[in-house]
């Protein structure tokens, strides 16, 4: 039988993460007390553990007899069989912003290879959403992913599902944070979505395999969603919805908070309207998010600098190239004029112009027209 003295630090963190009745705040304080060495925590004298604030006889006893409560070998076999990994705080692919919050998880189970190497934005909202909410969430997810952000949500029905789908629709990065073990798909109808996210992004959770979701686990999940992101966008939520908890965590963690307005007679708009009254940034499109993040330019994804060679046309997707070429030769054109010339919708052209502007290829003038740089 494995003993605390023979554990690797990663194994010891797996054990500590799985022990019941001990929260992340206490775990992090214990690790600080023992110089970040989880093996020393598990092998510490019971009396010393009990003297630590937040650790009573019950928790101290669980640490000393963890082998009777947690099958480490079985857990490691499950991780290997699922092609998952357990990412810990010191690892380079642990979400960097998550380390900064008051109560970061000491480790995350992860399915998928996304390494959190780009800015993350969360999109959350009601499970019982309207068609309007689904459309907005999917559109924002797609546009943010195309701009290089990773879209983070919780795999729930409604807004979460739409946000993930939007990011995947443009082959963008998206991460699902679960309120249960990564081996459990909830809701079950999102199995295909779960698999697609794991294949191209990541599905993560702080909970061990087999852990079922409950009210507390969803709240714990919400702090991770906001904690790993630069900002949180709420799309449809009642005042007592779970997304309001995520927004509250975002405020406590110093993250940007955004809210999409809705109908004044719609219950699922009440939470968003309250957030806006309390100072959240009103979102009518992705440009509102970008404008807010421009106050902190390091939040923006890195985009390639425009070429200094006037004869060199940059490599662009077909839709962007068509708009860019229309602006060649010094022409000044409005989105409506471009849309008419290209036979496209004005909204589509406006989104494309925004992408070109972020890439430094076009400039918006004060009169609303655009020109190539």
Task: Describe the protein in words.
The chain is an alpha/beta fold and 373 residues long. It has 3 domains: 4-76, 5' to 3' exonuclease, C-terminal subdomain (DNA polymerase, domain 1), CATH 1.10.150.20; 97-298, 3-Layer(aba) Sandwich (Rossmann fold), CATH 3.40.50; 318-372, Arc Repressor Mutant, subunit A (Orthogonal Bundle), CATH 1.10.10. Helices cover 42% and strands 12% of the residues. It contains 16 helices and 11 strands. It has a 9-stranded mixed beta sheet, with helices on both faces. It has a two-stranded antiparallel ribbon with strand order 10-11. The longest helix is centred in the middle third of the chain and has 16 residues, at 131-146.
**CATH topology of the largest domain, which one?**
Rossmann fold
- Give me the secondary-structure category: alpha/beta
CATH architecture of the largest domain: 3-Layer(aba) Sandwich
Mean pLDDT: 89
Terminal-residue CA separation: 68 Å
Q: In the residues, how many domains can be counted?
A: 3
What does the overall shape look like? elongated
Residue windows where pLDDT falls under 50 for at least 5 positions? 1-5, 304-311
Instruction: Compute the number of strand runs.
Output: 11
* Major sheet strand order: 1-2-6-5-4-3-7-8-9
Measured as a percent range, the helix fraction is: 40-55%
